[in-house]
Amino acid sequence: MKTYLKYSGLAVQSHRGGSLESPENTLESFSYSQSIGCKYIETDVQISLDGIPYIFHDETLTRILKKDIIFSSLHSSEIDRLSIFNNHPIPTLEKALNDFPEMFFQIDVKTDEVAIPALEIIKKCNAIDRVCIASFNSKRLNNVYKNCPEVCLSMGPIEVFKLLLASFNLYNKDIRGDCLQVPIYQYGFIKIVTQRFVKYVQSRGLKISVWTINDPKTLKKLIDMKVDGIITDKPKLLMQLLEN
Hints:
244 residues, alpha/beta, TIM Barrel, two-stranded antiparallel sheet, 13 strands
């Protein structure tokens, strides 16, 4: 089992640093997560025009800054002059990893272009043991695996579907991936997260996390199902539910 996954109990995974409790994907949100005792952060990386991986979710600046500009069209010198959510800089992946050496990061590599540069930064920061790479693109994940088989790899949608078939004895080949993060419903109508599937996944020695859950009733249900992790915009709320 990869070092990233060597935990017991339920991992509270702070989605973008806890975006309903702190400004998303900022150093402040990561610091907030750390301050409440959350050790796992789910975040995203995009790449600058000159090849620097940054902590940023969207392809464009439209939602965050009301500017119709593609993130990857900006040079790092331009990105470094931007501020989001009341004067917060957009952090580089390198700064995030270096500033929070005790935190574990699940990193969604948003484009093909950022995958390998992100891996190089992870290696440079000696952070392989505390990083898990995720993506909705299975080809991208395969590229990550070829370049760094030692890093923890979350399954993509194709691998998750194969695992679902395997749980009904409809697929018997190897499935690449060390863990999985899934929504309760895939494509809006295929229910993934059932007690049966959770037990099957865990019987294979894999860990299953569910995203992105903010509703207290659903959080409690997943706690009772004994999933291995929950990705939430409300990490403090989830931690309070676990304490109670």
